[in-house]
Design a protein that fits this description.
Blueprint (H helix, E strand, L loop, with lengths): L2 H40 L10 H4 L13 E8 L5 E8 L2 E6 L3 E7 L3 E5 L7 E8 L11 E4 L3 E6 L5
Antiparallel strand pairs: 1-4, 1-6, 2-3, 2-5, 5-8, 6-7
């Protein structure tokens, strides 16, 4: 190899090494800037002029009612004046118990209404006595008998 070829090769290697150093330095600088920005966001006591703190603070949603329509259902005991061990479940969560003869529950579209009679001593009958106008009317007036079980009553369908 002649000295010109060696010089050309070393010049190419040097340019590649310079390019790698520039890339490494740029990566390191960007990484440090990201760490500094994340720290400034995480600690509100740091007053960092680049970040407008008011733009980061939002308004939390107060209630879920704003996101969808709700309906109401009234269930009435037929056998007893009250029966606290009989629970009304909506989507598997206890929403009410029959502390009186009737129970009012609010439901959304797609909710599954169930009765938990697992702690009762006898079969108990109840009826759907009232439904808000936006709920499918086919269950209005329907009577159910629940024993010592969790019984699915229906899945709520709201009409718009």
């Amino acid at each position: 190899m002649s000295s010109n070829e060696k010089d050309a090769k070393s010049l190419i290697v040097k340019k590649n090494m310079d390019f790698e150093r520039i890339i490494h330095a740029a990566f390191f600088i960007v990484f440090l800037v990201l760490i500094i920005l994340q720290t400034a966001i995480f600690f509100p006591s740091i007053n960092f002029p680049v970040i407008g703190k008011d733009s980061l603070i939002g308004v939390p949603i107060g209630k879920e009612e704003y996101l969808y329509n709700e309906g109401a259902i009234v269930l009435t005991l037929l056998d007893f004046e009250s029966y606290p061990v009989l629970k009304v479940l909506v989507n598997g969560e206890e929403k009410a118990a029959f502390l009186g003869r009737t129970v009012n529950i609010n439901v959304k579209d797609g909710d599954v209404v169930e009765m938990d009679g697992s702690k009762t001593n006898a079969n108990t009958s109840f009826a759907v006595t009232s439904i808000s106008p936006d709920i499918d009317r086919k269950y209005l007036g329907k009577t159910f008998i629940v024993g010592r079980e969790v019984m699915k009553i229906f899945k709520v369908r709201l009409t718009s």
